[in-house]
Amino acid sequence: MMTSYEAWGGGDAMILATYKTDDGADAIGVVDGDVIFDLAGGAARAGEEAAPFASMISLMEAGEAGLDRARTLFQRFAEDDDLNKRLGEVSLRSPVPVPAQIRDFMVFPGHILNASAGMRTLAARIQGTPALPADAKPGSKVPEIYRQQPIYYKANRFSVIGTDQDVQWPAYSEIMDYELEFGVFIGRGGQDIPLERAHEHIFGYAIFNDFSARDTQMMEMQGRLGPAKGKDFATGNAIGPWIVTRDEIPDPYALSMAARVNGEAWSLGSSAGMLHSFEDIITFVSRDEMLHPGEFFGSGTTGGGCGLEQDRYLSDGDVVELEVERIGVLRNRVRR
Known about the structure:
The protein has helices spanning 39-45, 56-61, 63-77, 109-127, 144-148, 214-220, 278-285, and strands spanning 15-20, 26-32, 35-38, 84-86, 101-105, 152-154, 160-161, 167-168, 176-177, 180-186, 202-210, 212-213, 237-245, 256-261, 264-270, 295-298, 319-324, 328-335. The chain is α+β, with helices and mostly antiparallel strands. It has two domains: 15-89, SH3 type barrels (Roll); 101-335, Fumarylacetoacetate hydrolase, domain 2, CATH 3.90.850. The strands form three sheets. Strands 1, 2, 3, 4, 5, 6, 7, 10, 11, 13 and 16 form an eleven-stranded mixed sheet that branches. β17 and β18 form a beta hairpin.
């Protein structure tokens, strides 16, 4: 299993992170093993314009030319010690601390079925009635609407944290849950994007933990709109630990996924079996709507990828680690 600071790939591998500098400002860099290379510092050393490396969104807006410059600077100055820091010595933020937008989808059949049954079990326990089995019954079918189109909600883009940052348990909730997901950052904007060009709009991949206040979510979803405060609370969206660029993951639909709580495996899953690919999703969302660099699209939870599906929930102080093959490990502690 990978540690938080192990990078994948080689050659032209681009693993990009946002981190805090010694003066508290944000910087972006290239992750290489257990060090991170300062891209803006490299540009300054080369006597080049550093504006494309002011933030991750600035780099996205610079397009392929910006990524090519980043690769060149890294290859040229990677051995300069003063442009590198140990990952253990810096604080990683979300790769995009304030995404342009967050949309989270629900495309894994197992989760669609099991989450519905899990909500019924949770409702029965809270109301003091006999609990229903949390697993979907054999032969259950995914409602047709999930196959007809991608279903999603919009999350609070201002409530985003990175790896190794604490999640503050909302005071109004008693039942906290994790969700094992990954997702894509949009690197190129556009409207009415054709399916055959949709992959060109993917900048890269990151892990997503859509922390959920389940008791609150259960109540508000009865209003047939939402979720709202079941998802939207400070520090509720963890994204990271970094972005792995699109070309480094040839097949994002065959990745192993795992969730551990205090080192114990709670969920094992895969990115296989999505009802809609990220390319499908990009084409669908961009219909008569402009997409912008820096938007984040979450895959939704893989089957078995949350406590709701197991009737098993988090406690104060629990450390949740999500691992996705070829991306890394996203780690957060939950605090009441």
